[in-house]
Amino acid sequence: MPRLKTEAHRAPYGAAKESLLRRVRRQRLKTITVLPSLITILNGVCGFTAIALASRAAAAGTNEFTYHKLEVPYFAMAGYMILLAMIADMLDGRLARISQSTSSFGGQLDSICDIISFGVAPAFLMLKVLDYHLGPAGSAPENFLQSFIWLAAAVYMSFAAIRLARFNVENEQDESAHMSFIGLPTPAAAGVIVSLVIFHQETLSQNAIIYALPFLAFGLAVLMVSRIRYPHILNQYIKGKKPFAHLIRVLLFLGLVIWNIQTALVLIFCGFAASSFVKWFYYKVIRKRKLVPSTEQPALT
Fold first, then answer.
1. Mean pLDDT across 136-157
2. Which of 25-29, 128-132, 169-173 has the lowest mean pLDDT?
3. Which of 115, 142, 117 has its CA nearest to residue 211?
4. How far apart are CA 235 and CA 237, in angstroms?
5. pLDDT in tens, 62-86
6. pLDDT at 288 exceeding the cut of 80
7. If we measure between CA atoms, which residue out of 133, 150, 121, 120 comes closest to residue 58?
8. What residue ranges define each of the domains in the chain, with the CATH number in brackets?
9. CB distance 47 to 120 below 8 Å
10. Which among 268, 288, 270 has a CA at the least distance from the CA of 280?
11. 10 Å Cβ neighbour count for 165?
12. What is the rounded distance in angstroms from the CA atom of residue 190 to the CA atom of residue 97?
């Protein structure tokens, strides 16, 4: 009798499972938009190339990437590949909205490629750059420092994944909803790390910039999962009709890029990451304290 009862309980469960599998088969993906998907995949390929370049520099013990007449440090070239991934990331969503072909598949594919290019690649690049400059682990302080660098890279990558997963859940397809981001976008966070690496490699500046990266990675990780709002630069300041002052700002920005692209990248990405945090800190902490009425009673005269 107990065996018959068990079989009777299993039958409805098996039928429900089979019905669910049939529904999943009916929902199988049949069509995709080719051009936006190709550009999204290009984003992931650029991130993977950045990882390969950083790994090759560490393995070969040299930092000179040469291709025909092009001579660029390996780590800087890896950084430029991540910047190229950012351009692809901007283009794929824009093309999908223009062609009215946004889909859940495109959003999921975009997030997978983003975690490669703006999560894993910057963390790995930071790790390899510091390994290259620190050399092999030796004494206890050096072992502790390398463990701290690894932890910073792991935290950055993990929080980038959390940021992208949260974006997928809260994202809306309506273009009007894309005027700002909740939390620092992963491309902007990657841009801070990449711009500092490129600036260090191209200008041969002091190693203090590189050694500050693990601490910055912790700060960027927290900003990515925070609720601080960051503006969508394209939708808020460039798209549509804007005041004449916006044109002046864009021209000054282009002039800075032409004058020194390495310095421009550092100022743009670091300024963007710090701007909303500074504004939030001012309104939530400093101004709030000023507005709190004093609890002290005035002296009686």
1. 79
2. 25-29
3. 142
4. 6
5. 666 666 667 788 898 999 999 999 9
6. no
7. 133
8. 31-277 (1.20.120)
9. yes
10. 288
11. 12
12. 24
